[in-house]
Amino acid sequence: MVYDAIIIGARCAGSSIALLLARKGYRVLLLDKARFPSDTLSSHFIHPRGLVYLQRWGVLDTLLATGCPQVHGISLDTGRFTLSSTVLPLEGINFGLAPRRYVLDTLLTQKAIEAGAELREAFRVQDVTRNGTRVTGIKGHTTTGTSAVEKASLVIGADGLHSLIARAVEAPTYYRYPALTCIYYAYWSGLKADETSLHSRPQCVFLSFPTHEGLVLISVTWPRHRFPEVRSDIKKHFLEALALAPAFAACVRQGKQEQRFMGTGDTTNFFKKPYGPGWALLGDAGYHKDPLLGHGIADAFADAERLTQAIDSSFTGQQPLEEALAGYEQQRNREALPLYELTVQLATLNLTSEIQQVQEALQGNPEATQLFFAVLEGTIPAATFFAPEHIRAILTRA
Ligand SMILES: Cc1cc2nc3c(=O)[nH]c(=O)nc-3n(C[C@H](O)[C@H](O)[C@H](O)COP(=O)(O)OP(=O)(O)OC[C@H]3O[C@@H](n4cnc5c(N)ncnc54)[C@H](O)[C@@H]3O)c2cc1C
Question: Is the CB of 43 under 6 A from ligand 1?
């Protein structure tokens, strides 16, 4: 059988597009080398801009029913003062969520299956098949060694940062920046946390938020050049960073670390051309950025909607596939670039004097503070907040 789409990677990008395409009646094969439920290397905060997609797809209520705590507040402790706010609502959603990936990804695979997609777990794709320059399918094998070749009108790589599909088709890379940070995180029990709490200190940022099972995720981000040193003794460096906020460190000492540290220095930033003859990319496979602001999951959802629209408009004869996919790339870049540039700037962990001055001036100004956090949450564009007349108004009022 020839599928309409074979999707490699069944986490937040792959399962999302599988469910959207299957709901439109397309024959979808969804492959992953992992089995579900399973965890992956990722912290997992989703801002309202990501939850909007889950709401639209009818998945948000099911996710909330898993007991994932709603996070309505956010604070930033700069070491000299603390800014705090409630989350700026977007389409009626006034909270963020941090679902464990083994919950979120499994839920999305289940929704894709319910919609009619065929999921094959523990299946590792090894290469694409071709007819001339056109990709026509994939070949791979199960963990028990059974080989298979499958054919499709479109092969979609949702296979993450080190995408095999992107490598196989030699997808060109652009807007590239080197890795700027490294990050480690772990989970604690016995801590009280009902908001996203950020601490910025010279050359490090740490973050905490509540997740499933009463646990709190705490992460520390350092400049990338410190990765070898941090990795050599993660716990020591992690606790040294937290000690820069003594009250927070004292709270953490009251709790119990429940899992080992997870982390990476592989925080490279790039876009890839996300389509070619017979293939397309989405999620981290096509666009990867530093995890500092936590937008990878929402961006994967956004890609899933954009790419579904492009594929559907071509498969229903409204426009040639090449043209539809070119539109997908343009739309992705237009919508993703502002947050990408902000992420790269903040990932240097060196705040510009303008941002520092604005943060100072936000004290005692709750409306503007909420808008400032909304920029980090991706709800309003940085260009709107940092427009000269808006900044002038904030500085004048301070
Ligand atoms: C430390 C860290 C913290 C982060 N924190 C956040 C955060 O708080 N909020 C947020 O929104 N984002 C965060 N991110 C980013 C987020 O994890 C990613 O953007 C997101 O996982 C991308 O989803 P994806 O589906 O594109 O890829 P992935 O989640 O990487 O999934 C790819 C899937 O493809 C499968 N696969 C790969 N190769 C093959 C193959 N050859 N054959 C079969 N299957 C294959 C893998 O098994 C995997 O299941 C963080 C990332 C990191 C590393």
Answer: yes
